[in-house]
Give the backbone structure.
Amino acid sequence: MSYKTPTKAIITDAGFASRFLPITKTIPKAMTPMGAKPVMQLCIEECVAAGITEIIIVATPGTKSKEIYDDYFHNPSENVRVLLERQGKAERFDPVKEVLDFPKITVIEQDKSLPYGNGSPIVSAREFIDDDEAFVVLYSDDLIIGASDIKTLIDAFKEHPDAKGVISAQEMPREVWHKYGMIAIKDEAKHTLSHIVEKPETPELSPSNLTSYGRYLLTPEVFQYLNSKNVGLDDELWTVDAVTKLAETGDVYVVKSEGHWLTTGDPKNYFLALLQYNLKYSDYAEEIKQIIKGGNL
């Protein structure tokens, strides 16, 4: 069966982000800023650049995350707009207008009855996905700079409309293979997936230097395997386990990112991502370089 080209994205941010406490007891991790924009907004902009028209954000249950996302993406903040106009600074409100002009954004909470794991937020958004359409998934602690991975995934799906899925990959150095899902290729010529080894204990157990991360294009068939009966490592519900099952039934294509993947999942990597993002995009990049070069830290 062929599926419609994706127009919907599920962006997951379900979790308590304990490595970022105490700030994440008040705000979701994906609302930490890259310059003046939170990471979540950059994920949405990546989707917009790929032509996505509907976005479902899955927030952590039992927190204020849903309320915070709804406020950020839907609150017109008229009081701020009026004040800035009175002060003759109306142009400062333009970034807010850009946020309010995003495609349809629906915020839901993860189903609390599901097991722990990065697959559970996807299952929580099942009702928003029609049975005849493919869709994309983004983990909001994965940041792509320099390109839209979502566009790359959709372009690949258009070339292979019978695909069961398409996943993003990036080559990574040997010393970090134990931290990620490492990709085994089934057909080198077609660049299709065999399986993913999640966090191999030693480099020798990794099938390649290709890392899978939080950018997927999936078909609804994935929900046959992405359910609470199919928990894996550490009794968690893993997206990569379901993707591997898809690859057993048909072709799941592996495409290398045309940008650069950065994880923001812990304070150290968040800082490194923030630094690289600002060096690439901010208007004060040269000042940062001078500070680093001069050792004036």
Summary: Residues 191 and 254 are 6 Å apart (CA to CA). The first strand starts at residue 8 and ends at 13. The mean pLDDT is 92.
